[in-house]
Structure formats: structure tokens, C-alpha cells
């Protein structure tokens, strides 16, 4: 349990650091830290309960993307400013490192299997973002059509 708390804390710290690098210095840092912590928590919850890494990353990125879409409207800020820092803990950095290491060392069989894993992980993250963005756009279109003007 302690290991998961440390992982979550480091993910939050990395997200906040990345947000500061992006030039975010106000109350958005609090929301970014909450979103990244919640996203990593969902990922850990999925993987600990026996779901695949794909499922965990998809669920985490979907939660983070929905949270970013809502916060962007509330805080009147671009979605990307909230989304990118919140997704930092989900980035498969270790797997990407080993993939490139296998390529440089000429271990092409390991490179192939490792690159397949990295592409699967990146696809899960992208799928969660795309789904949340599509649903947000769909809701905006319905509100525009029904009410005659956009509230978002």
C-alpha cells in the first residue's frame, strides 16, 4: 500500500512540475494535482484488481480527459493546458526507454515485442482522450441545437 502512495505522490509531483514548466502558476496547479492523482489512482485500482495495463491506462486517461474538459469550461482555460500535465504519470516512459535500448543494442526480437507494448499503451491513452473529447463535442452540439446558443 505504501508503494502505491509513493507512486501517486511522485506522479502528482511530476504533473505539477510539468505544469509549472508550461507556465501554470495559479489555482490550476491544485486541480492538475488532483486530476493526475485521481488518474493514477484509477490506473492502480484497475491493474491491482487484475485488469490489463490497456484497461487501466484507458480508464485513467478517460477520467483525466473528462476532468480536463469540465475544468477547462469552469476555469475558462484551454483543455490542453489541463490535460497534458495531468497525463504525465500515465506516460509509459520505462517501456519506451527499454524499447529504444533494445533497438540500439540490436536486440530486434525484444525491440519488436517492447514496441508493441508501448504502442498499445499509447493507443489506450489516445483512445481515452479521443472518447472524452468526442463526448464533450457531442454534448456541446446538442446544447447548441436545443438551446440555440452554446453555453460552453
Order of helices and strands: HHHHHH
> Could you list the spans in which at least 5 consecutive residues all have pLDDT below 50?
none
Q: Which percent range fits the helix content?
A: over 70%
Overall, the morphology is globular
Ends apart, CA distance between termini: 40 Å
Number of domains: 1
Number of helices: 6
Give the beta-strand count. Answer: 0
Please tell me the overall pLDDT. Answer: 93
How big a fraction of the residues is strand?
under 5%
| Major beta-sheet overview | none
SSE layout and pairings?
Elements: H1 2-22, H2 28-48, H3 53-75, H4 79-87, H5 93-105, H6 108-147
Fill in the keyword field for this structure:
mainly alpha; 152 residues; 6 helices; 84% helix
Structure, explained:
With 152 residues, this protein is an all-alpha fold. It has one domain. It has helices spanning 2-22, 28-48, 53-75, 79-87, 93-105, 108-147. The longest helix is centred in the last third of the chain and has 40 residues, at 108-147.
Please give a quick description of this structure:
The protein is mainly α. 84% of the residues lie in helices and 0% in strands. The model has no long low-confidence stretch (mean pLDDT 93).
Amino acid at each position: 500500500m505504501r508503494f502505491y502512495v509513493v507512486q501517486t505522490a511522485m506522479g502528482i509531483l511530476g504533473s505539477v512540475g510539468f505544469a509549472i514548466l508550461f507556465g501554470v502558476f495559479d489555482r490550476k496547479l491544485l486541480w492538475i494535482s488532483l486530476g493526475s492523482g485521481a488518474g493514477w489512482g484509477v490506473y492502480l485500482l484497475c491493474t491491482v484488481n487484475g485488469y490489463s495495463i490497456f484497461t487501466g491506462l484507458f480508464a485513467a486517461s478517460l477520467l483525466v480527459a473528462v476532468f480536463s474538459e469540465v475544468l477547462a469550461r469552469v476555469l475558462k482555460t484551454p483543455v490542453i493546458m489541463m490535460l497534458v500535465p495531468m497525463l504525465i504519470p500515465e506516460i509509459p516512459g520505462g517501456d519506451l526507454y527499454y524499447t529504444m535500448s533494445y533497438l540500439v543494442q540490436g536486440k530486434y526480437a525484444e525491440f519488436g515485442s517492447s514496441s508493441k507494448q508501448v504502442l498499445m499503451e499509447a493507443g489506450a491513452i489516445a483512445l481515452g482522450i479521443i472518447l472524452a473529447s468526442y463526448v464533450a463535442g457531442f454534448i456541446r452540439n446538442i446544447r447548441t441545437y436545443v438551446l440555440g446558443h452554446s453555453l460552453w
